[in-house]
Design a protein that fits this description.
Elements (H helix, E strand, L loop, with lengths): L12 E6 L5 E6 L3 E8 L4 E8 H10 L1 H10 L5
Antiparallel strand pairs: 1-2, 3-4
Helix pairs in contact: 1-2
């Protein structure tokens, strides 16, 4: 499973690891993805989402009903 947030859509960034001798090698910066289970009153059931920690803060700010409505409007399955 790829490291993509279902709320924000954030995915891996890419860059370089730089050693002491300044040799550059490719590396990935993965978002901090967590599996969270939320109760959604509008659906009347629990929903498990793969969200980044920034996505969890977005859910806290907007509310789970609004976020789930946005995800469903994009056509994603829950």
């Amino acid at each position: 499973m790829s490291a993509v947030c279902q709320v924000l859509g954030t995915s891996s960034g890419f860059g370089h690891s730089i050693s002491h001798s300044h040799v550059r090698t490719k590396r990935r910066f993965d978002p901090n993805i967590q599996k969270k289970r939320y109760w959604v009153p509008s659906l009347g059931r629990h929903v498990t989402l793969r969200v980044s920690t920034r996505g969890i803060k977005t859910i806290d700010r907007k509310g789970i009903d609004v976020v789930v409505a946005e995800i469903l409007a994009r056509g994603e399955k829950l």
